[in-house]
Amino acid sequence: MSVNANSKVFIILSGNTFGVEAAQAIAGALKKKNTIKIVNASDIFTSRLREEIPSAVKAICDALEDKEQLEELNFSDNAFGPAGAEPMVDFLTKNRRLRVLKLNNNGLGVRGGILIGKALLAAADKNVSEGRTSSLRTIIAGRNRLEDGSSQALANAIAAHGTLTEVRIPQNGIRPDGIITLSKGLAVCKDLEILDLQDNTFTEKGSVNFAKALVEWPNLKVLNVGDCLLSTKGGITFAEALSLGHNKKLEKLNLQYNELDREAVEILATTISNHLKNLNSLELNGNKVNPKDISIRNVISALEENGNADALGELDDMEISDEEEEEELDEEETEPSVKGLEDRKVLIESKVESRIEIQKPEKHLIEVKSVQESETREIHKEDQETPSANSERQVKELTERISKDKVTESSINAEQKVVKPLTPAKLEEFKKAQENTGIIYLSCVPPFMKPSKIKHLLGQYGNIGRVYLAPEDPKARSRRKKYGGNKKKKYTEGWVEFLDKKVAKLIAKTLNAQPIGGNKRNYYHDDLWNIKYLAKFKWNNLTEQIAYEKAARTQRLQAEISQARRENKEYVKKVEKAKMIQSMEEKKEKKRKAAEVEMANLETFTEADVIEKKRKKIKQKSAEDGDNKKD
C-alpha cells in the first residue's frame, strides 16, 4: 500500500475471502497507515472455518485501534456469530473516534448483541470521564437474531451515545418487551434522523411505549416500522402520536403489514395534511383497510395537497374482510341509482332496446318487450298525474319489475345456450395445447405472497395457465398467530403452468436465484426467485400426485383410526376384566370376613350353652316324633 501520507485511505476488502495469515498480513499493512477513514470488510470470510474467523477479526481490529481518523467500520454479511463479536470488544472500547458501525447480517445472537452493547457502553463511559462528546452517529445491526435478551445492553449503549442520528436494527426477532426497552434508550437520542425497526414484533404493548418515544425525535426523516404488527389499537396510538406534530421533517414512513384499520389511517390522513408536508414516501400495503375506503382517499388527497401525489406505494395486498368483499361484489352487480322519474323511464327504455337486439326473439321475448313498453307508458302516465306523492311506490314497483325482467332474461339466455359437441379435431387441438405447456417449480415462496401476486409477477413474461401454491402447516400458522406473529397465510412451494414451454424454460433459466426486483418500495424487492423447470411434467401429473398423496394420507389416517379403535377395544376389555376380577375378590373377602365373624361367635359359646342347645334340639326332635305317632 503506497499511499500519500496526507491522503484519506479507503480500505475495501469486500467480496474476497481471507484466512488467518492473510488477515494478519493485511493488519500489518494497516498499522502503518494513520489516515484510514473507511474500512469495508463485509463478506470476507466465505467458505472459511469457524475457528479461523475470530483470529482474523482480531488481527484487523487490533490494527485499527489507534486510528484516530477512522470514521466507518463495516463487518456486515460475515456469519461469524458471537465468536466474531468478542474480538471486536477491545476495538470498540478503545477507538472512540468511530462514527459509523455496520454489523448487518452477522448472526450475532443474544450473546453477541450483549458483547457489542457492553463494549459501546464502556466507550461512552470513558468519554464521560474524559469530558468528551461521543463521535458515534450510526449503528446498523439488522438480521442478527438479537431478540429480547440483548435489548437491555443495546438500549443502554444507545442511550449512552445520545448523539446517534441513524439506527437500523431490522429483522431481529425482538418482541414487545424488547421494543419497550429499546424505545427508552432511543428516546434519549434527540437528533435521531433515521430509524429502522422493520420485521420485529410490537403489538399494542410495544406500540404504546414506542409512541411515547416518537415525540422525542423532531429531526426524524425516515421511519420504518413495516411488518411490526403494531396491532389495531397500537396503530391508533401510533397515529395519534404522529398527529401531535413533533415529527414535521418526516420524509419516508413505512407502515406495511401492521393491522392498521381505517381509524388509524384516517388520523394519519389528517396528520399528513396538517404536519407531514415533506412526506414523499408512504407504505400502507397489507393493512386492514379497503383500498377504496374513504380514509385511503383522504390520505391520497392530503399527499396531493402537499405536492407528493406519487408518495403512496402499492395497495395490492390489503386485508379486506369477507363482509367488505361481499359488499364490493354487490356494488358491482347492483344497477346504478335512478334519480327522478325521467331517469327511471330512460333506464326501462334502455332495457327494452337491449332485448330487441337479441337474435331471433321467441314469442315470450316479444311479450316481455310489450310488457316493458306498457310499463313505461304507465309510469309516464302516473308521473304526469302525481309526480311526487307516488314516487316511493313507483320506485318500489320499478325495482320489482326490473328484478322480474332479470329472471326472464336469464331464462332466455339459458335457452339460447348451445352445447357444441366435442369433435376429434377439437380434442386433438386441446391435446396439442396441453403438450405445449411448461411447468415451473417454486421451491420456496416468498413470505405471505399470494397466488394472485405470483401470477401478476410472472405473467409479464408469458401467458400463464394455472397456479398452485402449497399452504403451510395449519399448526405452524396457528402457533404463529397465537404468539403475536403475522396472521397472513404462508405458502411453502408452488407450481406455475405456462402456455408455452419455451417461455417456461427461459424463465427458469434467467430468473432463478435472481431478485424479484421491481419498485424499490415493493415488499418483495429483495427476495430471490427459486425456480426450476420440470421437464416432461404436465399439470395432470401434479393433480395425480396430489390425489395420490391425499389417498395415501386418507389410507394412513384410516389405518391409524383402526389401530386406535383396536387399542381402545382391548383397553375396554381389560378394564371390564379387571372390574370382574375385583368384584370376585371383593366377594371372596366378604365371605372370608363372614366366616371369621361366625368362628368368633362360636368361640364365645360356653359349655353350658352347648349343652342347652343340644337339649333344645333333642326336645324338639322328641316333640316331632310324638306328633308322628299320633298321626
UniProtKB/TrEMBL annotation:
Coarsely, its chief localization is nucleus
Locations of Acidic residues compositional bias? 323-335
Where exactly are the transmembrane stretches of this chain? none
Which portions of the chain have biased composition (kind: Basic and acidic residues)?
371-384
Molecular function (GO) terms listed?
RNA binding
Instruction: Supply the CDD domains for this chain.
Output: LRR_RI, RRM_ABT1_like
Q: Among the record's GO biological process terms, what is one?
A: small-subunit processome assembly
- UniProt KW RNA-binding keyword: yes
Task: List every stretch annotated Disordered.
Answer: 323-342, 371-395
Enumerate the UniProt keywords alphabetically. Coiled coil, Nucleus, RNA-binding
Q: Where in the cell is it found?
A: Nucleus, Nucleolus
* Coiled-coil features, chain-numbered ranges: 243-270, 554-601
Pfam families per the UniProt record, alphabetical: LRR_6
The UniProt similarity line reads: Belongs to the ESF2/ABP1 family.
Record-given protein name: 18S rRNA factor 2
Species: Funneliformis mosseae
